[in-house]
């Protein structure tokens, strides 16, 4: 089982829940199991540009991306980037 932590904005969209315990073999599998999947993935099933994902504090891109394998007990944290100018 892995834990997925959501920022407050996404937690609001998931009915107030900011923590999910899931059975998932990969980062992508865990993220796609979330009730806010449509907010973090685009119409091509790619992670949206301003969504950053960390596994145990390491950027998921450095751990194999969405196909990166997960071990039991690991924590995934979703961070929505801030953009503007």
Kindly describe this structure.
This protein is α+β, with helices and mostly antiparallel strands and 85 residues long. The mean pLDDT is 93. Strands 2-1-5-3-4 form a 5-stranded mixed beta sheet. It has one domain: Ubiquitin-like (UB roll) (Roll). Strand 3 and strand 4 form a beta hairpin. It is globular.
- Order of strands, widest sheet: 2-1-5-3-4
CATH class placement: Alpha Beta
Radius of gyration: 12 Å
Number of strand elements: 5
The geometry reads as globular
Order of helices and strands: EHEHHEEE
The level of helicity is 10-25%
User: How many helical stretches?
Assistant: 3
What's the CATH H-level superfamily name?
Beta-grasp domain
Note poorly predicted spans.
Answer: none
What is the distance, rounded to the nearest whole angstrom, between the alpha carbons of the first and last residues? 40 Å
Report the major sheet. Answer: 5 strands, mixed
The computed structural class is alpha+beta
CATH topology-level fold name: Ubiquitin-like (UB roll)
Q: Helix and strand layout, with pairings?
A:
Blueprint: E1 2-5, H1 8-13, E2 19-22, H2 27-32, H3 37-40, E3 51-55, E4 58-59, E5 75-80
Parallel strand pairs: 1-5
Antiparallel strand pairs: 1-2, 3-4, 3-5
